Amino acid sequence: QRPFERTKGINGLEKIIVRDDHGRSFEVYMYGGQVASWKNEKGEELLVMSSKAIFNPPTPIRGGIPILFPQYANTGPLPSHGFVRQRFWEIDTNPPQLPSNSYYKAWVDLILRSSQDDLKIWPHKFEYRLRVHLGPEGDLVLTSRVKNTDVKPFNFTMALHPYFSVSDISEIQVDGLQNLDYLDQLKKRTRFTDHDKSITFKSQFDRIYLSTPNDIRIVDKKKQKTIVVHKEGQVDAVVWNPWEKKVEDLGTEDYRRFVTVESAAVEKPIIVNPGQEWKGILQMSVVPSS
Ligand SMILES: O=P(O)(O)OC[C@H]1O[C@H](O)[C@H](O)[C@@H](O)[C@@H]1O
Fold first, then answer.
1. Against a cut of 0.90, is the pTM above it?
2. Catalytic site residues (predicted)?
3. Which segments of the chain are extended strands (E)?
């Protein structure tokens, strides 16, 4: 394994920096296990951090890739989006092997175990293992493994919430979600079917697409790039842009620079039996397009 660098980030919060041999890199904060940066070989940042992000626990960090677990949004009794984005994760020094272990060149393994306090709000013992790695082409991959270390089954909803950098929100389109059902979060999660050829953005947008294909594309004509979002083990996808809606810790013009396309499990909670493990993959790559 390439050694990773453990250093102090904003406000003294600890972060890990991982680089590969081609000059690509990513950064993960121990707080939230949250990826805060992903750069290609030219040093270009591919994710967005809010210009007003607050690096002060227990406030969640606005930007990068928050992990929303064990509850997506306010779909249950927990605080919105669960609590792991507000916990301090640890380095996983002895992670169980993944099938494709030899393929990893630049990676880090983190772990979060439920604490006594967590058990008071969500009474299920778990271990959440997160591997973040750079693939051979500079793609960023998050492998999540959630183990039930308790004596009874539990279920959860979740999402990985990347703030993808785009040239301009009004210039991009999202492809791969045509003819699917979605829950419109701006209409009390009413169910509709999307008959548009592709998604474009003209105002606030907040939808949970249900049982989607594995690949979704964010086409950015201005940048001549396409971001491919590939997901496994999480059947839904959330697409969000707040537009003019006031978000406390987001700069007023920040919404123009990002879109979130989230790998999610919302409609059908994931059930994990005692001693068993759920695995999900989110792979993000940027490819040229005309
Ligand atoms: O403000 P947060 O709790 O970080 O949530 C940010 C956003 O997350 C998701 O994308 C939801 O679909 C949105 O409804 C929500 O506004």
1. yes
2. 161, 262
3. 5-8, 14-19, 25-29, 34-39, 67-68, 90-91, 106-113, 126-134, 140-148, 154-160, 163-165, 172-175, 181-184, 190-193, 205-209, 215-220, 225-232, 236-241, 258-272, 277-288
